[in-house]
Amino acid sequence: MPTFAEIAARAEDRFNSAVVRVLSRRGYTARVVAYPSYGTVDRVRVRARVLLTAPDAPTPGSVARRGWRNLFSAELPRAEVRVRAQPGDGPDLLVGCTDRGGYLDAWLDVALEPGWQTLYLSVDGDVDVPAPVQIVDPAATHGIVSDIDDTVLVTMVPRPHLAAWNFLVRSEARRKPVPGMPELYGRLTAAHPDAPVFYLSTGAFNTASALSRFLHRVGLPQGSLLLTDLGPTGVALMRSGRDHKAATLRRLAEELPGLRWILVGDNGQHDPQVYETFAAEHPGRVAAIAVRELSIGEQVAQNGLPGPTPATQRAVDDLDRSEVVTAHAPDGRALADQLAAAGVIG
C-alpha cells in the first residue's frame, strides 16, 4: 500500500502534467535556467532546471521580481538539455534529461582551467544559456561553506508576519545583508584566494537568481548555490533541511578531498549540530566554524524561544570544547576578529 508521501508525490506529478499540457497548448515554450555550480579541472557538475514560459516572457530569473513570484513556475520533466563548451552548434559535451521536477543534475568529464568558467545549456533549440561553474584549483587548500538565511541575508525579524512580508512581497533590491558579513567574507577570500565558495541552504531553487543578484549587490563573493526543492519527494512530504545540509557537506568532502573547510552558519536552527557532526566524521578536515548569534527577537521568530534550542546550544558548547577553531558573535565583523585572533584569516 503506498504511503501518504508517495500519494502526494503522484498527485503533484499529475498536477504538473496537467499544467504542462495546458501551457503547451497556449504556446508556452521550454527554457532552461542554469544554476551556479562547481567542478574540478577534469570533471564538472551541471545543475539546471527547465521551465515553461510564455513566448514573449524574459528569460527566467533574468529580472528582479517580488519574492512570491519566484515560488510559482511550471517545470518540464523529461526535457532534453544539451551542454556545450561554446555557444552555437558545437559538439555536445552532454545530453541530459530532467527529472520529475524539471531538474538536471549531472556530472560530465571535461577539462577546464581553475577559476570561474562558463558552459552553455540549451533546450528544444532555444538560445544558449550561460552556466557559470567554479573550477577548484588543485592547489587550493581551503573551501568555504555558508548558510544564507540569517547568516548573510537578513530574513527573520521579531515578528514572523513581517518576515513573511520581507520574503513574499518586499522587493529583492531592498533585502539587506547581515551586518559585517561582506567584510567577513572579504577577509576570508583574501586569506584563502583559491578557496571555492558554496552557499548551502534549505531555500528553494526558485530563488537562485534573486540570491545571485543579492550576493553581487552587497559585495559577497560569487559561489555555487546548493539549494533544494519544495514539495513531496516520494519518501517524505517535505525535504529535511538538516538532512539536505548534512548530505551535501558529506558529498563535498568526498568530491573535493584535498580541502579543509571553513563553515559559516547561525544558531537559529540546526547549523551548529550539522557542523559539529561533520567535524566529528571528518577529523582534521574542518579549519574553522563561525556561528552568527541571532538576537532574542530573531530567536523567538525562529523557534519560539528567547535563545537557541537546547540541542543547538549543546552543539555550540561541544564545538567550544573541541579542537576545531570556533567563533560565535552577533555580526560578521566580530566573527572576523575572532577568526583573525585564531590565525584563520589575516
Descriptive keywords:
346 residues; alpha/beta; 8-stranded mixed sheet; 6-stranded parallel sheet; globular
Topology (elements, then pairings):
Layout: H1 4-25, E1 29-34, E2 37-40, E3 43-53, H2 67-70, E4 80-84, E5 92-97, E6 103-109, E7 115-123, E8 129-135, E9 142-146, H3 160-168, H4 181-191, E10 197-204, H5 208-218, E11 224-228, H6 241-255, E12 260-266, H7 271-281, E13 286-292, H8 296-303, H9 310-321, E14 325-329, H10 332-341
Parallel strand pairs: 2-8, 9-10, 9-12, 10-11, 12-13, 13-14
Antiparallel strand pairs: 1-3, 2-3, 3-6, 4-5, 4-7, 7-8
Helix pairs in contact: 4-10, 6-7, 7-9
Brief overview:
By secondary structure, the protein is of the alpha/beta class.
Task: Walk me through this protein's architecture.
The chain is α/β, with parallel strands linked by helices and 346 residues long. The chain has ten helices and 14 strands. It has helices at 4-25, 67-70, 160-168, 181-191, 208-218, 241-255, 271-281, 296-303, 310-321, 332-341, and strands at 29-34, 37-40, 43-53, 80-84, 92-97, 103-109, 115-123, 129-135, 142-146, 197-204, 224-228, 260-266, 286-292, 325-329. Strands 1, 2, 3, 4, 5, 6, 7 and 8 form an eight-stranded mixed beta sheet that branches. Helix 7 (271-281) links the parallel strand 12 (260-266) and strand 13. Helix 4 (181-191) runs parallel beside helix 10, helix 6 (241-255) packs parallel to helix 7 and helix 7 (271-281) runs parallel beside helix 9 (310-321).
